[in-house]
Amino acid sequence: xxxxxxxxxxxxxxxxxxxxxxxxxxxxxxxxxxxxxxxxxxxxxxxxxxxxxxxxxxxxxxxxxxxxxxxxxxxxxxxxxxxxxxxxxxxxxxxxxxxxxxxxxxxxxxxxxxxxxxxxxxxxxxxxxxxxxxxxxxxxxxxxxxxxxxxxxxxxxxxxxxxxxxxxxxxxxxxxxxxxxxxxxxxxxxxxxxxxxx
Length: 198
Hints:
With 198 residues, this protein is mostly helical.
């Protein structure tokens, strides 16, 4: 067996062992797993085992080819930073896409003082992400000065969307069951208050 074949098989073994990470909600996986997938696809290492990339995805890592390609595309677009944040906070690709320019302005850091991407700092990280999302939304939202009813309704709708996104981010993170119940109770109260508006 050649050295190239041995390396290919080792990488294939690694990614096959990581299939649970690939099938997680929102396609979250580590940047290293995404990089291994990209290497296997781009260098056609899967041919040691099967004839096609689609067959490798279906039979060896139990995800669709499209799903694997999407993971690789996220790595190509954002680099490893997205995967680190997604693992910690549950941030979606669309949310990250909106704040990516802001993070780049900070030198790929979440704060000017270099907030570390570690589980112990997850609450601070979520606060920083929320701040960046607010900045991105403010920049993208046209300012209306007329005070018309339609402008105020649009602003309220925008606020409701931000609230829903904030709940999604909290619930996407691994949090203790008791805390999750508190958040869900708060969500139910918010829904009830909006539903009561007639």
